[in-house]
């Protein structure tokens, strides 16, 4: 039994990995827990009412047998845990990973970076310094690529998309190839400090992540590395601009707006890659011929065609 197989209005038995625990208070003054689970295919959040963290006997990283209710709430499926039992099963089978080998992705990205001219040494240095984290890190807590190796996978697929777009638009206006691809590879490098990721993909924001965010952290990492390597000032400035503007709009977290075409391409490739991941995930969690729950980052429900 998987979470996607639980019909709304029914209660089912399911086995899942516990990846997160958060205690909250209700308006009535009672305490309850927000629990994060993964069944190996899908990550969900469930409520466990009238319980404190101290009273809850399970720990993150344990596989539990659950009795779960599914209800419809504001257009999405909401889960409530009615009871749970501890098991001794290993969590490995429940951790969702990127569909490609992380070492292979890292090596291909690193090899590509060696050909980025004046930016090559800087990109390779930051990749090498953060290799251990990059091999496992997620690209986000919940919205997209929140899987083992998700950050590398996001970089890798974006690099493929940007390579195709570069071939089209280099014939329309002058583009700095090396700057574009350096920005693609490093645009989310700040997430290795913004997020904490455990081996079971328990993901949370660090103090730096909450206070600064990955755009600023990444630009700072680039600045520090560029200074050590003696990168020309304007080259450093342009690459930092790529990172600081890649969210595209200030209301989406951008520090500044894309002021060069390379930054605009990066922004759109980033959005497209994140959205395609969300569409794919929604379809995998939805039966053919049906609509998914509302995907808030897409602001819509996703249809999974019958054929």
Automatic annotation (TrEMBL):
<dbReference type="Pfam" id="PF01966">
    <property type="entry name" value="HD"/>
</dbReference>
<dbReference type="GO" id="GO:0016787">
    <property type="term" value="F:hydrolase activity"/>
</dbReference>
<dbReference type="GO" id="GO:0031125">
    <property type="term" value="P:rRNA 3'-end processing"/>
</dbReference>
<feature type="domain" description="HD">
    <location>
        <begin position="152"/>
        <end position="274"/>
    </location>
</feature>
<dbReference type="InterPro" id="IPR050798">
    <property type="entry name" value="YhaM_exoribonuc/phosphodiest"/>
</dbReference>
<protein>
    <submittedName>
        <fullName>HD domain-containing protein</fullName>
    </submittedName>
</protein>
<keyword id="KW-0378">Hydrolase</keyword>
<dbReference type="InterPro" id="IPR003607">
    <property type="entry name" value="HD/PDEase_dom"/>
</dbReference>
<dbReference type="InterPro" id="IPR006674">
    <property type="entry name" value="HD_domain"/>
</dbReference>
């Amino acid at each position: 039994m998987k979470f996607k197989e639980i019909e709304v209005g029914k209660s089912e038995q399911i086995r899942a990995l516990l990846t997160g625990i958060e205690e909250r208070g209700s308006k009535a003054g009672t305490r309850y827990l927000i629990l994060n689970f993964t069944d190996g295919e899908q990550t969900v959040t469930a409520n466990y009412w009238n319980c404190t963290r101290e009273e809850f006997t399970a720990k993150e990283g344990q596989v539990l047998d659950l009795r779960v209710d599914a209800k419809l709430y504001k257009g999405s499926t909401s889960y409530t845990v009615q009871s749970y039992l501890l098991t001794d099963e290993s969590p490995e089978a429940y951790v969702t990973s990127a569909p490609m080998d992380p070492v292979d992705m890292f090596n291909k990205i690193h090899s590509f970076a060696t050909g980025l001219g004046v930016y090559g040494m800087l990109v390779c240095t930051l990749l090498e310094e953060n290799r251990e984290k990059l091999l496992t890190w997620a690209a986000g807590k919940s919205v997209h690529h929140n899987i083992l190796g998700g950050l590398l996978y996001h970089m890798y697929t974006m690099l493929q998309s940007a390579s195709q777009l570069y071939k089209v638009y280099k014939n329309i206006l002058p583009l700095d190839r090396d700057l574009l691809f350096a920005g693609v590879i490093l645009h989310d490098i700040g997430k290795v400090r913004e997020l904490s990721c455990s081996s079971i993909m328990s993901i949370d924001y660090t103090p730096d992540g909450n206070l600064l965010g990955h755009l600023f952290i990444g630009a700072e990492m680039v600045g520090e590395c560029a200074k050590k390597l003696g990168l020309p000032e304007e080259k450093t400035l342009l690459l930092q601009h790529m990172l600081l503007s890649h969210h595209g709009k200030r209301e989406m977290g951008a520090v500044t707006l894309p002021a060069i075409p390379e930054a605009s391409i990066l922004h759109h490739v980033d959005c497209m890659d994140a959205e395609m991941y969300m569409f794919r995930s929604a379809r995998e969690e939805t039966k053919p011929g049906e609509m998914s729950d509302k995907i808030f980052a897409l602001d819509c429900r996703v249809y999974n065609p019958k054929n």
